[in-house]
């Protein structure tokens, strides 16, 4: 039994082929179980109360079981250590969660409601009083037929459920509006705006995804300083949640290529307007490549400065909420705008290549004066940094 525990707590690269096969089976079984639980939770959320305030969609806070498969970097660690490092829980928070049965590990259909060392195949369960962040209410439709819906996604709303969002996502909102099941084909980062393609059936989603590796995507962005046209060909690797930047350039990462074409340099604000054409589809690829070239997106709090980090942009007065009586925590409003937008997407389905184009945001026009926006961003950014530090 002791030998089996040692094997289960080893990382994947130390396992034999047979052990890796068993670990993979556990992972698939765990994912199926998590999917089933998420479906049941979504059914319970159908009647979740929604409020529209000043063009923003609010979800009334609710209880939610957060589930996540144990990641490889967690194996061999105690739950307490994981909750502190990955989710920034305090010792008091962890103790209280264990006492109330709100934090546990699911292992082989058994639940462990105490601190323990996690192993391969475990599922971490944590019940939270979820405060979903408000998102823009209107979702402009670019194109729709019997197979797909193409949306001009606003900045600040996620594509699908995950993290702090279940109800306030593009797919979930459209599903509730139309009373149909929708399927994601690709995704845009929460802060990235622009063309987003959604399928009306799993068959269409699978068909488009088979061709998506050859899809043509064109973005517009505004970066710091003078940047000429160039090609950035640097591998990208995901980092731990502990670090400030989730993704970085690294020799052990996946091959990543982005073509940048200069549109205009604005001497007044010392910013450059660029076309960005990614040839691969890595997480935060454009943002990371621009940061690597020392020309990050001008209002990108995450990648603008390696020594600074801030998840907020501005907190309008009418967005503030009082502290929650259920969990004694208020709502933090994250940066709701990023000067990065997908303006063109060409992809093949039904044997034909179709092109979808979105309207260029106002900050992406040649004559737009962004000096006021930048000044506001710097003021709020520096204020929050001083409070954090």
UniProtKB/TrEMBL annotation:
What GO MF terms are annotated?
Answer: pseudouridine synthase activity; RNA binding
Q: Which organism is it from?
A: Entamoeba histolytica
Q: Which residues form the Pseudouridine synthase RsuA/RluA-like domain?
A: 147-291
Its GO biological process annotations read: enzyme-directed rRNA pseudouridine synthesis
This protein's name: RNA pseudouridylate synthase putative
Lineage: superkingdom:
Eukaryota
């Amino acid at each position: 039994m002791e030998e089996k525990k040692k094997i289960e707590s080893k990382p994947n690269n130390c396992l034999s082929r047979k052990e890796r096969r068993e670990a993979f089976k556990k992972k698939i079984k765990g994912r199926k179980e998590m999917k089933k639980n998420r479906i049941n939770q979504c059914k319970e959320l159908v009647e979740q109360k929604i409020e529209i305030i000043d063009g923003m969609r609010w979800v009334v806070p609710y209880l939610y079981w957060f589930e996540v498969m144990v990641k490889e970097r967690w194996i061999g660690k105690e739950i307490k250590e994981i909750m502190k490092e990955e989710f920034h829980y305090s010792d008091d928070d962890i103790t209280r969660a264990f006492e109330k049965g709100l934090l546990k590990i699911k292992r082989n259909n058994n639940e462990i409601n105490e601190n323990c060392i996690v192993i391969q195949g475990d599922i971490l369960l944590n019940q939270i009083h979820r405060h979903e962040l408000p998102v823009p209410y209107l979702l402009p439709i670019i194109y729709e037929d019997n197979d797909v819906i193409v949306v001009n996604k606003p900045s600040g709303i996620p594509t699908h459920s995950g993290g702090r969002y279940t109800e306030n996502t593009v797919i979930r909102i459209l599903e509730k509006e139309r009373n149909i099941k929708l399927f994601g084909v690709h995704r845009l980062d929460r802060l990235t705006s622009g063309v987003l393609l959604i399928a009306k059936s799993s068959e269409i989603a699978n068909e488009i995804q088979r061709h998506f590796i050859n899809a043509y995507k064109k973005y517009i962005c505004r970066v710091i300083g003078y940047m000429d046209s160039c090609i950035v060909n640097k591998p990208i690797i995901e980092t731990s949640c502990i670090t400030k930047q989730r993704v970085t350039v690294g020799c052990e990462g996946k091959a990543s290529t982005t073509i940048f074409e200069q549109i205009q340099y604005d001497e007044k604000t010392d910013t450059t307007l660029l076309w960005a054409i990614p040839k691969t589809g890595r997480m935060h690829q454009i943002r990371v490549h621009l940061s690597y070239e020392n020309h990050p997106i001008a209002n990108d709090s995450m990648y603008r400065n390696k020594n600074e980090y801030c998840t907020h942009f501005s907190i309008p007065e009418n967005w503030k909420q009082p502290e929650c009586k259920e969990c004694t925590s208020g709502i933090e409003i994250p940066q709701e705008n990023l000067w990065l937008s997908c303006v063109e997407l060409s992809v093949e389905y039904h044997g034909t290549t179709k092109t979808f184009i979105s309207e260029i945001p106002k900050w992406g026009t040649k004559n737009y004066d962004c000096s006021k926006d930048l000044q506001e961003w710097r003021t709020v950014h520096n204020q929050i940094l001083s409070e954090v530090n």
